[in-house]
Inverse folding.
């Protein structure tokens, strides 16, 4: 896991070299009159899908959402997907339900894009266009570099619809920002060392960074075998705040941009409830500092490294092998 | 909360009396060429939206998903919602972000349905059609009867597109099944009494019952101030299983129907990991038994009562006032 985290700047660089090509290939299969976009995935790929969902709705100007695989694989409903783009994500490309849903959505009229690390996989074979992650073999069960690559690939899908919500030149800053984080694991180790007595973590964010919060909770569960839950800052106010207690550990991700003020208010509220709040933001005082000047959605990339480092460090402080969590395998054969 | 749980059979009966009228009113505003449906809500209304999402995709035959309010209220993106039905849910009808998103989706071309307990609320005023819950005043902060009513109202929205996935006559069984549960609080009290040492609960289900799992976790957080997380049975296999430990308390909801076999497999898997698994199903041996013969999606209704009863009983065993959780108010003014 540590080695795969370190490979990420190079993975991003390679994928960005193919960025314009990937944009053009997705643009070539878009429906003429777009009705909407649906993303389909499970696990950490589903967290990447949440990131893509915000961006694609912004660039496509049409409703975008997450598909429910069981509607196809279990309820066998005959949904008409004409006019829709379907984006199916699977790192291995072999999760049966994702392959099956992508195939069925295509038969039902959707144009389909596969995002996978294996261009020869079953998923790649059923889609109209394949964006190959090119991340190289990933061995650790908790996916890191392939998730990062999925986030980057989704920028290309969003870019196929129209201008991204940041200057084209900012793309180059992603690999640099991620490199800065990779070379600086000390903040995550420090935070993990202060959490030795923790048995439950809450992670919260809003907007694009919510995808990173979901990934933080999943990585902590997988690598550190610790219950961790991600709740969006808005949803947290609608009930779950009642279960936040004095000394509970909460990680707040602030990606800058239009949601930053609300996340700041929430941080104060959590502290008032007595929670032990750690922050990940561009502020120098943050427990997990991000490079200055990058705002949502670009700040999601360095933030992703920070939460990977935290999960890894928590595994180490608890004496667990982060690469081989109990009860899991690298490919999860859900149907 | 206890009184409002007890009122639910009557609330359902009143709403079902207006079922055909509600179906006709929604049918009257459906877009001519439907592109898709988007549901918008927060908190427990968002859990009801998850229930509606499965049903509406089945009856409408077009992609259905959950909207992200921040895209409207924070990112200010100009999405084109022509051809889409937007369903906005808010029990109070005054949550600012839900009112604002419903108004903006309507301006962007969506036909809009408001589901609310206050037919004179701001939300009711911005929608093309209002389905009033008629649940009467709800005082306890953890919503129960209004959530149940939202589930019922969503049956009418789904029914406006075409035949529901069960016979029309089955509708009458809902109130009866809920009454059976309301009159039998002992199983929930018994389970809560056996969980006195619990500090974290995992709830899992698949399909329509996933909405009930989400509501279980939210109600336990609100009423019993206990960390509780809902994870779909499929997503659980993609990582979170690593954080399930010996003696962890897991509640598995099995609503029967096409997902039952998979939920059964998962229950075995959780027990193999050493988790302390409680079940809610139509089996007589279940910790929280459901009336026999009702399958997904109808089993969601009695299951909703079972998880409300469990949250209430956990609040009592822990000495908390379920009606007034710390840090919450009845109306949550997120923007």
């Amino acid at each position: 896991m540590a080695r795969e985290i370190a490979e990420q700047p190079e993975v991003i660089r390679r994928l960005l070299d193919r960025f314009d090509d990937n944009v053009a290939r997705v643009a070539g299969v878009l429906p003429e009159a777009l009705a909407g976009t649906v993303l389909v995935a499970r696990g950490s790929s589903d967290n990447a899908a949440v990131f893509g969902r915000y961006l694609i709705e912004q660039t496509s100007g049409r409703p975008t959402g997450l598909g429910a695989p069981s509607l196809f694989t279990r309820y066998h409903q005959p949904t008409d997907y004409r006019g829709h783009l379907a984006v199916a994500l699977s790192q291995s490309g072999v999760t049966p339900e994702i392959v099956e849903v992508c195939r069925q959505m295509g038969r039902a009229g959707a144009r389909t894009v596969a995002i996978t690390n294996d261009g020869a996989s079953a998923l790649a074979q059923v889609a109209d266009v394949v964006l190959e992650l090119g991340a190289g073999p990933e061995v650790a069960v908790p996916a890191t570099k392939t998730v990062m690559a999925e986030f980057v690939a989704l920028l290309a899908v969003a870019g196929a619809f129209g201008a991204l919500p940041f200057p084209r030149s900012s793309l180059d800053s992603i690999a640099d920002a991620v490199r800065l984080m990779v070379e600086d694991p000390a903040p995550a180790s420090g935070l993990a060392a202060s959490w030795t007595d923790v048995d439950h973590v809450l992670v919260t964010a809003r907007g694009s960074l919510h995808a990173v919060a979901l990934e933080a909770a999943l990585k902590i569960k997988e690598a550190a075998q610790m219950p961790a839950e991600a709740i969006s800052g808005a949803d947290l106010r609608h009930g779950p705040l009642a279960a936040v207690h004095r000394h509970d550990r909460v990680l707040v991700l602030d990606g800058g941009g239009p949601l930053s003020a609300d996340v700041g208010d929430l941080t104060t509220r959590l502290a008032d409830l007595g929670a032990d709040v750690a922050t990940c933001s561009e502020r120098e005082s943050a427990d997990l500092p991000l490079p200055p000047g990058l705002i949502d959605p670009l700040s999601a990339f360095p933030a992703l490294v920070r939460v990977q480092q935290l999960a890894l460090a928590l595994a180490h402080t608890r004496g667990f092998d982060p690469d081989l969590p109990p009860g899991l395998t690298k490919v999860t054969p859900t149907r």
User: Anything to note?
Assistant: The mean pLDDT of chain A is 94.
